[in-house]
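REQUEST FORM: STRUCTURE PREDICTION
Request ID: SP-0412
Submitted by: Lab K.M.
Chain count: 1
Length (residues): 244
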Amino acid sequence: MALIAFTSASGSPGVSTTVMALAYNWGAPALVVEADPTGGSGMLVGPLRAQRPGAGCIVDLLAAQESGQIGSKLDSVLMPLSEQLSLLPGPRSHEQASGLARLWPSLAGVLRERSEDVLVDCGRLGMGSWPRAIVESADLVVLALRSSLRQAAAASSWARELAAGEVPQEHECGLLLIGKPRPYPLAELAKHLGIKALAEIAWDSSSAHVYSDGGAAPRSFAVSAYLRSITALAAKLRSPHDSQ
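STATUS: Completed
RESULT:
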């Protein structure tokens, strides 16, 4: 199945929330990997509301990595979220994250062999201990941003590097616009950055709150533009390989 890396070039465009929303609406078996080296495991304290304090996390794989046993250890630290969905929580602190750089190459290889689709929240490009090997190994790299001059400028240099070989040529890179397409629409941003336009997420803070903080779904949630855009993107990302 597919390995899809979600990342950004600037702070807080909504990557983690979007990954969780996609996962819950994937419609097929999926594994979410929280590889953001910032620490704090936003997915545990966000949508899961810190209800599973004893859960394992990605740091637990470091010892297995030393002995080449990541593949056999991985399932034991996964957190089941539903019948078809599991989560590998990220580091709980930035101190834990500092040792992850040596884990990424081995973990990338293991994730590519998984039978389910793997959605990886890679955090911000270029941060200390960022999961470069996972980005390089992904079938698709999704670069997320909001429509602002600041985020477009931050994405510009990374877009050139991605196009120049950070992502191997047989892998794809797509631009995901989160929020209102103003002042710059997706097509204009994609042309400026030289990356294929992938999709837009119609941001709605009350609906997104369901996945970012485990909030109650608003009355209009099931028919919201936000959920429609999430389910459409999930189908778009899922269909090429699930149909094979």
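NOTES: The longest strand covers residues 117-124.
Reviewed by: T.R.
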